[in-house]
Design brief:
The chain has one domain: 3-Layer(aba) Sandwich (Uracil-DNA Glycosylase, subunit E), CATH 3.40.470. Helices cover 38% and strands 14% of the residues. Strands 1-3-2-4-6-5 form a 6-stranded mixed sheet. Strand 5 and strand 6 form a beta hairpin. The N and C termini lie far apart (42 Å).
Length: 181
């Protein structure tokens, strides 16, 4: 596809519903080889777990599943939403261009199926609430994003074997659970 359109002119703005957004993603060249992940799970619950991109390492997704299970959530009671619909080449950090191209899609999803609470795993996911939310010091603090409460936390990719980061992530999970209860 060509360079990203300005957000106001982005084709996602014309999508009348979620199936239309998925159809739009289906027109991207990447969709020829693998299906896009815009969301998985229960959008109607209005509880989102936001990630930057689908992971090529299944262990990261398993960790997210276990994190949710620790606070009595699963994909029947939350939706996994991805800022980018496909993994990045070599599992590298998303480029500014890719984020600019697909952020209007996530914003339109939020208009069509508005969340009330968003757990943003990782700095790039948290960046939707603004640059301040992207900072590491923002983890565990609530931000407003499009009428939803967004809580930045740590992505499993960043945790590795670091027990302190895992402890912090668990504290964030408990905050999130208390807010959606």
């Amino acid at each position: 596809m060509a360079a990203p359109a300005p957000a106001a002119d982005h084709p996602a703005r014309a999508c009348a519903d979620v199936p239309a957004l998925l159809a739009l993603l289906g027109r991207f060249p990447d969709a020829r080889t693998r299906p896009p992940l815009l969301y998985q799970g229960a959008l109607e619950t209005r509880v989102w777990v936001l990630i930057d991109r689908p992971d090529t390492d299944p262990a990261h997704r398993d960790t997210i599943d276990r994190m949710l299970a620790a606070i009595d959530l699963d994909w029947n009671r939350a939706a996994l939403v991805s800022r980018l619909p496909w993994p990045t080449p070599g599992d590298g950090e998303p480029t500014a261009s890719a984020l600019a191209r697909f952020t209007p899609v996530v914003e339109r999803l939020a208009e069509l199926s508005p969340p009330t609470h968003v757990l943003a795993l990782g700095q790039i996911a948290a960046d939707l609430a603004g640059g301040q939310a992207r900072l590491g010091s923002s983890r565990g603090r609530w931000f407003d994003w499009r009428g939803a409460q967004l809580l930045p936390s740590i992505h499993p990719r960043a945790m590795g074997g670091n027990k302190e980061l895992k402890r912090q992530a668990f504290e964030h999970l408990k905050l999130f659970r208390a807010a959606i209860a």
